[in-house]
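ugh finaly. both done.
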Amino acid sequence: MAGRLARPEAVPTLRQRLQDTSAEINLAAADALANIGTEEAIAALAEASVTRNPELGRRIRQVLYSHAAVAVPILVRLAARREGAPEPSYLEVATELARAVPGIAEQMLGDGSEPIRRAAAAVLGSVGDAEALRSLVQKASAHDAAARQTALQALGDMGQEALGALAGLLAASDPSVRSSAVDVLVEMGDPGIAVLVDQLQSTENRELASAICVGLAGSAAPAGTRALREVMAADRRDDTWVAAGQPCELPPELLQILRRREARAEVALALVRRTVSRQ
């Protein structure tokens, strides 16, 4: 019996035994799959790596570490969802293994499936090492819009460590890269918004100033609305508001809204955004 279960054709049977109610049978099946070691066997172990049995989970992860180059792409695919964020449990295992095989998750940023690209980006963002950061910055300027957006999202997932890289992308020659970097920084909340406010106050690039205004005005975060209101209010001179060091004459209807105390700040900011973007 043991000999038959050590053959590749036994993988479907062993896959089922990983779900058995007996912990002893689970562990024996995991060991048998480890001995087989084919991609199909590693896939069966990867699927079972998210388990309520702590001992089985530890045993499976030990095996997957020895086959990380095969296991990480499988786990990324398991984590991928058609909509929303990747499945967190598989993502956690994929991230843990990806740290042992630098560059393996990065290769999946070019996958034809958007959910898989998102999952790979989330893994890279969680790994957060210097090599991954450099690679993502390069891919964030790629001609392929999908790959670019995936890389930018991964930078956002890195958090504080990627703030400098994202700030640097605000100076990119491609307007779509600048705009996407603004969006990611807005999504990061207060740390990213602080970077945008600093850029808005210092940049001489009016297109960048407009993109930042659009991003902050559209932010659901109160900090984004407050930051834009404070920056613009500080630069107000009578009936002229200043963006990027250049005066922006506001139309009468906008001035009326700005003078109404009961007007929502978001409405005024949206109109300011439109005015700046047309200059």
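ok and the 2nd:
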Amino acid sequence: MLWEMYWNIIDGVPDLNLPGRGYRQNLYDLSQPLAGNQIALRLVMDGMKIQPCNPTFIDQRDAILEADRVNNGGAFQCHIWKAFAKRGLGVNAVDGGTFPLDDNTVVQEDFTLPCECATASLTNFASSALGTIATATSQHSSGLYPAIGAINGNHTGSDWGNGGGWNDGTPGAYPDELEVNFGLARTLNQVRVYTLANNWQSGAEPTLETSASGEGILDFKVEYWNGSAWAQVPGGNVTGNDKAVRVFTFDDVTTTKIRIVVTAARNNWSRIVEVEAFGCS
């Protein structure tokens, strides 16, 4: 299973807009962003650090999945699931508990993938095209950076300053909040936050490595409404951000709205190009 996962990640790195980084012969070369084989080995090692004593196969699977959420924002969840589910450790698998097992132990193979991995694409519910609305604690006085611009489907920044993306209206004062209201209950398992990249004028598609060290948001939280209060999504407290894209992957939550709470930003302004909230249709 680990060998399968190893190659899934190597083959999958180009699919995540990181071309040429699938494999690096020198595993000890850390002078560049990690290649696919380095990412896979690190996940196994970090998973071992957080798994319980006497782990079952499911414990080990879940520890690697959690390590990916911590290390990579959950970017390789489906690569991992596909390797384990192919060998019978799918979503509904039962491993019988801790060893030693006896003749009465129930072991159940399962080859089911999570819906987000079994379908070709998830639905982005944070889209104005679906009737979703966006509001903010403030907006820039020019009117060129409205909250609704953060859910218009363009996360390249190519229409920044022309209705494409939100900029707050209180420079240097925090927190700033951007709320996305779906209008009905949606089940989510991933949120993506795009801030203003260094090279936004080029209109290039941002990747997980695209820098936002000039005008991006620095410290922020991603929260969802649990019916009575705001709750933070797993891994949703970010400090010292310098990337144009941050991906948050988590177990399903059902909610009517999410919000981004910015507590610090570069160059005085909170700038969010796009917010996406994915779930199975």
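summary for the 2nd one i guess: The mean pLDDT is 92.
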